[in-house]
Design brief:
The protein is mostly beta strands. The chain has a domain of 61 residues. It is 7% helix and 16% strand. Strands 1-2 form a two-stranded antiparallel ribbon. A two-stranded antiparallel ribbon has the order 3-4. Strand 11 and strand 12 form a beta hairpin. The radius of gyration is 33 Å and the shape is rod-shaped. The N and C termini lie far apart (101 Å). The C terminus is likely disordered.
């Protein structure tokens, strides 16, 4: 038969506490931030570690994410961690889990390709090459598709593809560094580089 024994004078539990409780008389609950709510039956220290987002001997401290900001358990945010981070947040490469700012929901690691903004809720422009853009500003980072130009590839180039290539060729030509040949007293050639563009500017 299972029986409970405790000290005759103090009432201290002779065999410790059932899971989830601690102290001499097992009258204190283990912290809900302890993994499995399991703790040392004498000290209350979390013996199986902490739930996600907490740290410390008693899991009393809010953990920090990779950016150094307080976080909820992975994938959540809000005062009570009841909101979900955007599924378009980029996962942290070490844990392959999504983290976002506890207060704002801002994605800690930026966005998956094709999306931008703090919460990664805006699509990169389809006129961006490969639909790739800066995860904060939305600027096209790999250039534009044929027939478009601008930081966001928002401007249409006249005559589309051919005009775009002509403009590109013109800009490349203007950047060619010209060489001016100068002869010294012994008529040995010595080249001086000039950054002046071919259009005379």
């Amino acid at each position: 038969m299972n029986r409970i024994y405790c000290d005759k004078t103090s009432g201290t539990c002779a065999e410790g506490c059932i899971p989830g409780w601690y102290n001499d008389k097992c009258n204190l609950r283990c912290s809900k931030t302890c993994s499995n709510k399991t703790c040392n039956h004498q000290t209350g220290e979390c013996i199986l570690g902490c739930i996600d987002g907490r740290k410390g001997r008693f899991c009393e401290t809010e953990a920090l994410n990779v950016k150094g900001n307080p976080v909820c358990p992975p994938g959540t945010y809000g005062d009570t961690c009841h909101k979900n981070c955007s599924e378009r947040c980029r996962a942290y490469s070490v844990t392959n889990r999504i983290y976002c700012d506890k207060n704002s929901g801002t994605c800690a690691e930026g966005c998956i390709p094709g999306w931008y903004n703090d919460k990664c809720n805006m699509r990169c422009s389809k006129t961006c090459s490969n639909k790739a853009c800066n995860h904060q500003t939305g600027e096209c980072i790999l250039g534009c598709i044929d027939g478009r130009k601008g930081r966001f590839c928002e401007t249409e180039v006249t005559n589309g593809r051919h005009a775009g290539k002509a403009q590109q060729n013109s800009e490349q030509l203007a950047r060619i560094v010209s060489v001016i040949v100068v002869y010294d007293e012994q008529t040995k050639p010595s080249c001086r580089w000039s950054s002046r563009s071919t259009d005379g500017r």
